[in-house]
Design a protein that fits this description.
The complex is a heterodimer of chains A (about 160) and B (about 100). Chain A has a single domain (about 10-160), classed as Alpha-D-Glucose-1,6-Bisphosphate, Chain A, domain 4 (2-Layer Sandwich), CATH 3.30.530.20. Helix content of chain A is about 15%, strand content about 35%. Chain A has three helices and seven strands, in the order E-H-H-E-E-E-E-E-E-H. The longest helix of chain A has 13 residues, at about 145-155. The radius of gyration of chain A is 17 Å and the shape is globular. Chain B has four helices and three strands, in the order H-E-H-H-E-E-H. A three-stranded antiparallel β-sheet of chain B has the order 1-3-2. In chain B, strand 2 (about 55-60) and strand 3 (about 60-65) form a beta hairpin. Classes of the chains: A alpha+beta (about 160), B alpha+beta (about 100). At the A-B interface, strand 1, helix 1, helix 2, strand 7 and helix 3 of A face helix 1, helix 3 and helix 4 of B.
Chain lengths: ~160, ~100
């Protein structure tokens, strides 16, 4: 845990789904391709499928229509049907960041309110860790969160002309 | 070249101090308790300002510095919206009759 982890407040959401806890967990994880917005991806090819491998250490990745794969993160904790925690290894250039210490993460927890109703609590935290990813991204990004991450990277990086 | 994961720790500390303060601070206030000179603090503030993360304003015979409120809020807001919409899509998928793929 870094002292900087609290610089940007986590994004939190909670919702109730009218299904058993096991199903809610399965649809969120193994069924992620069913609900993921098709325009939210980073690969060069159009999105064919989003896959979360159902185990700790499993990959979260996209597969393009040409079969090419592009990683998004790793399953850090796989604890069905209670919770799943995943690293968000996408940098400000919308590319995979292999170093998890430079990445944020999200956690989803599932609580049975009844046999057919589940409360889902979502948290995405540690955004500021992306900021230290390096200065080279600064000129490469043009908008969205990338520009902000780049600004943050510039501000938090060492004083030197670093090349990625 | 490997960039240190947390970047420059002094600049990070300065940024944190401004974030925690929640009000404009002068260089002398920022430097207090940090093991760096005031000119060094000023240099770090300059970088933060150029990056759009910190803004300053004149006050009497000195300048006051504070976090640019929009800089971090926009990043967070992007993900707030992104996940809110995605979780609604998840809810619809979970409650629809098809089996998860």
């Amino acid at each position: 845990m870094n002292a900087t982890d609290s610089l940007i407040a986590p994004v939190r959401h909670a919702l109730v789904v009218e299904v058993p806890r096991e199903r809610a967990f399965d649809v969120f994880t193994k069924g992620i391709d069913r609900w993921w917005f098709r325009d939210h991806h980073i690969g060069k090819q159009p999105l064919q499928q989003v896959v979360m491998e159902p185990r700790t250490g499993g990959r979260l990745y996209e597969r393009g229509v040409d079969g090419s794969e592009c990683d998004w993160g790793r399953v850090l904790t796989w604890d069905p049907p209670s919770s799943v925690r995943v690293s968000w290894q996408i940098n400000g250039e919308w590319q995979f960041e292999p170093d998890p210490s430079r990445c944020s993460e999200f956690e989803v927890r599932f609580f049975a309110e009844s046999p057919t109703r589940t409360r889902v609590e979502f948290e995405h935290r540690g955004f500021e860790r992306h900021g230290a990813a390096g200065q080279a991204i600064h000129d490469a990004v043009t908008g969205g969160w990338g520009a902000l991450l780049a600004a943050f990277a510039t501000a938090t990086g060492p004083v030197r002309e670093a090349q990625a | 070249m490997r960039v240190q994961a947390l970047g420059d720790p002094t600049r990070m500390a300065i940024f944190e101090r401004l974030a925690d303060a929640g009000r404009p601070l002068a260089v002398v206030d920022i430097a207090q308790g940090l093991a760096v000179t005031r000119p060094a603090v000023s240099q770090h503030l300059k970088v933060l300002k150029l990056a759009g993360l910190v803004i300053d304003q004149p006050a009497a015979n000195r300048r006051l510095y504070q976090i640019e409120p929009q800089s971090l809020a926009e990043l967070r807001d992007y993900f707030d919206r992104f996940w809110r919409d995605s979780l609604l899509a998840f809810k619809q998928a979970a409650e629809s009759p098809e089996e998860p793929s």
